UniProtKB/TrEMBL annotation:
Its EC number is 2.7.13.3. Gene3D superfamilies: 1.10.287.130, 6.10.340.10, Histidine kinase-like ATPase, C-terminal domain, PAS domain. It comes from Cystobacter ferrugineus. Keywords: Cell membrane, Kinase, Membrane, Phosphoprotein, Transferase, Transmembrane, Transmembrane helix, Two-component regulatory system. The keyword Cytoplasm does not apply. It is a multi-pass membrane protein. This is histidine kinase. It catalyses: ATP + protein L-histidine = ADP + protein N-phospho-L-histidine. One of its GO terms (cellular component) is plasma membrane.
Length: 775
């Protein structure tokens, strides 16, 4: 197949593999079984490295979407190229296993150095891809053991798969039969363990969120009650003109509020314009007095004017004397409908954070409380005294995940949405959310997926360990079964080979005594069959010997009257002339023809009786060939001779080689009835051999005739042979003569029509050639 054709097959199969990769099967969370490698390996094994590499590159395009990097696609292309390059030397499973043994260097250079994936993630990725490839090649090897598949793909099967042993069949089938159920059951068990761990994480998150939500609501309620109580007290102490009590009185009440409310870290009383009239504590950290501070720009100053009771603000930024985010409770001071000011208490967020820290102590959980706008009230991950800037979760992956979660619900989000799928489970954050109804705040407790990632990895490697044990057990069982089954079958095969070599007493039943009943019965049936065949062969050989003896006797008896007849014809030819002479010439030719047939029958019978000796002499083979060919072609007016030769000296039986040349040239003339050129070539080839080639443009040969025509009394069964005389022993005798000279003879059809007979003969007898190096 040409390179363009291989590339075309690779593109077509690669597109199929790309589609199959999109339908990846999730064995465990984050662990997918790709089906595309099966198609890539089919391309590599059946069509070679070019097709396998192209199919792998195309099929790997879908992994760009799955894995967000090109190294998986390149790895799949290299796998197809490697397995395709070794397909004629190794079985697909061995070649793919060898590739994955060499792959750690590739993963180190690409995943670790280029992508920066941690070593643990690189290990998991490498193992997952190796399992994908090895499982695919195992499925492929089992598919190629199915007889119907083998018949359909036989021209494409590489040598290691052309002949399949019983041992490989058992080991492949048992291994696949052990791996697939384990993969299904192990994956189901691993997923159940993962789901159990996930439920536990979600329950822990929700429990911590409820505890923190209760604490927040209790603390806020206590502060709100405190400012409300103080506002009512000050409302009763207003003067007739609606003026607030003096600063000293106000500071005393504020001190009591801060002292007896641990959730409050500072408080003040403001007038309707938003100026602080009294403060507790009195001074900021730098010693400046806080009374007189202007808070008119605060939103809560405007909101509290219309409020009828205490309100709680969203999180806001503090002033220089109180940096960091703040949450305040504000209560209006009213006399009837007259608004006289307000009481404000700032809540102690660090104290709430400390309480949250107590819920996540010695764990990787994180607690965040957000207000209704998404601003972070406090975050357990922040350490210090609450001097962090104001933060918000608006627009973050967490905020988007919260859109589908109600109070008491759970969800997940990832901070690295384009991160590597190898670490995707570990990059997920699992959270539980509980709202504080009175405030509209949300309490979020989350845990990173590292714990679940470790659980998935443990489940996966546990599954792989179980699969390795199952494969080992399957291989051992295959070896046991193979011995049990192959031993008696091999015994039958060996007995058949010995029978073919002439050992008539070879039997197989003894070796199959302990085999399963069917195989033992097979060996016994074989022995009965060989016994019967042996008896039949003895009868055939006896008949053949009798036939050869008959032919030998008949030939000898026929030669005497034919010799006498030939002599009388020659005497009459000398005495008669004219028309009678021509008739006697015709009789003489017919006598010669019958004599040749009798000689051929005699030779065939002598060969059957192993009684055809050779009389070697030193001669020029080219002269023998020239003489016989010219005589035969000269007697045929429709044919011409094209003779090419050079002198070749050797030790041959001249009469027998004349007989070989006569048979080949006469066949070329006989089976080319319309006439034409008979080409006879003789030259020396390597290893001191003479090559004789006789070619014609006759009716030609069928492929099945090229060997069959060398049988005794074989002429073929073609319609074109009707009317062409012969008894079918010429080629049989010629082959035996050539074989006894240490040579070989062959027939083949000729391009454009006709046939070519080729004879190769050593120029020296075998004993002289073997003795030459020693001398």
């Amino acid at each position: 197949m040409r390179v363009l054709g291989r590339i075309g097959y690779g593109l077509a199969l690669g597109l199929i593999g790309c589609g199959l990769n999109l339908a990846a099967l999730e064995v465990l969370p984050g662990v997918h079984l790709l089906l595309g490698p099966l198609v890539v390996l089919i391309a590599a094994v059946l069509f070679g490295p070019v097709t396998g590499g192209v199919a792998g590159a195309v099929a790997g395009l879908s992994t760009l979407r799955l894995w967000h990097h090109p190294w998986g696609a390149l790895n799949l292309a290299l796998e197809g190229l490697f397995v395709g390059a070794l397909r004629r030397r190794l079985t697909p499973l061995v070649a793919d296993a060898l590739y994955w043994l060499m792959s750690p260097l590739y993963f180190f250079l690409t995943y670790y150095l280029v992508e920066g994936i941690p070593a643990e993630g690189v290990l998991v990725a490498g193992v997952k891809q190796a399992v994908n490839g090895l499982l695919a090649v195992l499925v492929l090897q089992v598919l190629l053991l199915i007889p119907r598949v083998r018949r359909s793909l036989r021209p494409l099967l590489p040598p290691p798969l052309a002949e399949v042993s019983i041992g490989r069949t058992f080991s492949s089938a048992l291994t696949l039969g052990a791996v697939v159920p384990l993969l299904v059951l192990g994956g189901a068990e691993g997923r159940e363990r993962y789901d159990s761990q996930l439920r536990q994480v979600e329950e822990e998150n929700l429990h911590a969120a409820r505890v923190v939500a209760n604490e927040v609501e209790s603390s806020i309620g206590h502060v709100r009650h405190g400012v409300g109580q103080l506002a009512r007290t000050l409302s009763q102490g207003l003067t007739a003109g609606g003026q607030l009590p003096g600063q000293h009185f106000l500071e005393g009440e504020l001190d009591a509020l801060v002292t007896y409310s641990p959730e409050v870290h500072q408080a003040y009383v403001g007038n309707p314009e938003g100026l602080a009239m009294a403060y507790s504590p009195r001074h900021d950290l730098s010693g400046r007095p806080l009374a007189g501070s202007d808070y008119s720009d605060r939103a809560y100053v405007r909101l509290v004017q219309q409020a009828r009771g205490p309100i709680v603000s969203d999180v806001l930024s503090g002033r220089s004397h109180s940096p960091g985010p703040l949450v305040v409770a504000v209560a209006p001071i009213r006399q009837d409908e007259r608004y006289a000011g307000y009481v404000l208490a700032a809540m102690d967020l660090p104290r709430l954070r400390q309480h949250a820290h107590a819920q996540v102590q010695n764990s990787d959980r994180r607690i965040r409380v957000t207000d209704a706008r998404g601003s972070v009230v406090f975050d357990s991950a922040i350490t210090g005294a609450g001097r962090e800037p104001l933060r918000s979760i608006t627009g973050t992956p967490l905020a988007r995940a919260l859109e589908d979660v109600t109070s008491g619900g759970t969800g997940t989000y990832s901070t690295e949405e384009e991160g590597s799928p190898v670490l995707r489970v570990g990059q997920l954050h699992h959270f539980g959310m509980v709202t504080v109804p009175s405030l509209g705040w949300r309490v979020l407790v989350e845990q990173p997926g590292t714990r679940l990632q470790r659980e998935v990895e443990r489940a996966y490697f546990s599954l792989l360990g179980t699969m390795v044990l199952a494969i080992g057990a399957a291989v051992l069982l295959a070896l046991v079964f193979t011995r049990t089954i192959v031993a008696p079958v091999q015994a039958v095969s060996d007995a058949a080979a010995r029978q073919a070599a002439g050992e008539r007493m070879a039997r197989a039943s003894e070796a199959a005594q302990d085999a399963p009943h069917e195989l033992s019965q097979l060996a016994e049936t074989f022995d009965r069959m060989t016994g019967q065949l042996s008896r039949q062969m003895e009868a055939i050989e006896r008949t053949s010997r009798e036939k050869d003896a008959f032919l030998s006797i008949a030939s000898h008896e026929l030669k005497t009257p034919l010799t006498a007849l030939k002599a009388h014809v020659q005497l009459l030819r000398r005495k008669l002339g004219g028309e009678h002479g021509e008739r006697l010439d015709n009789v003489s030719r017919q006598v010669d023809r019958v004599t040749r047939l009798v000689n051929q029958l005699l030779d065939a019978s002598q060969l059957g009786l192993e009684q055809l000796p050779l009389q070697r002499t030193r001669l020029d083979l080219s002269e023998v060939v020239r003489r016989v060919a010219e005589e035969l072609v000269a007697a045929s007016p429709l044919h011409t001779l094209a003779f090419t030769a050079r002198p070749l000296l050797g030790d041959f039986d001249e009469l027998r080689l004349e007989q070989v040349v006569h048979n080949l040239v006469s066949n070329a003339i006989k089976y080319n009835p319309t006439g034409g050129v008979i080409e006879v070539e003789l030259h020396e080839v390597a290893d001191c051999e003479a090559e004789l080639r006789v070619s014609d443009r006759g009716i030609g040969l069928r492929v099945e005739d090229e060997e069959q025509l060398f049988g005794r009394f074989e002429r073929g069964d073609r319609r074109e042979l009707t009317g062409i005389s012969g008894i079918g022993v010429g080629l049989y005798v010629s082959r035996e003569i050539v074989r006894r000279h240490g040579g070989r003879i062959s027939l083949r059809s000729r391009e454009g029509g006709g046939a070519v007979a080729t004879v190769r003969l050593p120029l020296a007898p075998p004993e002289q050639r073997s003795a030459a190096p020693a001398s």
